[in-house]
Amino acid sequence: MVQLQDLYxxxxxxxxxxxxxxxxxxxxxxxxxxxxxxxxxxxxxxxLWKYSKATKKVEITNKPPINQLGxxxxxxxxxxxxxxxxxxxxxxxxxxxxxxxxxxxDGVITFEENIAGTWTELLKLTNTSIDTLTLSKGVLTVSxxxxxxxxxxxxxxxxxxKDRALYKYLYQADxxxxxxxxxxxxxxxxxxxIDEVVEEYPSRQYQKAxxxxxxxxxxxxxxxxxxxxIRITYKPIPVTLTSLDDYMTIDDVLCESIVYDAAGKIGFxxxxxxxxxxxxxRMEAKGEAMESGPAVEETITNYYGGSW
Length: 308
Fold this sequence. Notes:
The protein is an alpha+beta fold. It is built from four helices and 17 strands.
């Protein structure tokens, strides 16, 4: 990555203000040029960003959690009308150490452990007049994992619940997975658009992903039952440049054209003789940066017969 300071030094060199008799000119003597350069460079970077080939990557590792309630049926949306419901049933199931569930309305969801024949409350969740399904997930501190645990759905008025899970393994409190057919992953703040999504499977398979969805530009959804590594390549939004210590978001080759772009604008105030020169260099540098990269295998022509 290129630091703005490096580009600024080149701009000063164009105006012959970088050194004097081999000694670097004191920053305060170029304070006005520096202030203008930062603003012009920021504007140029945001304009050139559309041509940038610089990308960043996000990796998501996923392994489907073991749901003691079963695989698919607990995704279903179920109504509660006043009659107590039990999951998996009144008898419960052993090896439970966590939970995940969505519910709305005035729902009451209790997790109970059977200790020596007595059902003992581990945790009680309550909602109050919530109109949308709300996620709750966490750890259940059982006295013995061989004891049976059950999820009890109760309340006094109608509400809905879905995506119910009783997890076999103990997770860290902040890493309990959400149990949903499609799991949301929040993309970084500088995310703009997906360039490529690749999936790597445990059995050495590697392919471009096709089973994913995006919403609201920043929400990435992947299938809960995908097992492996998801690698998302995206084009980052340029950060606003405010200091010479900042680093450029666009690729290095395009950064060179910023030197000439900013120098051309500053030249109107400092030295109009260099304006034509730097404008020509700006166009050349921009053109070089916009050239296509190496051809992929499918686009290489075989002039010697046959096919690749």
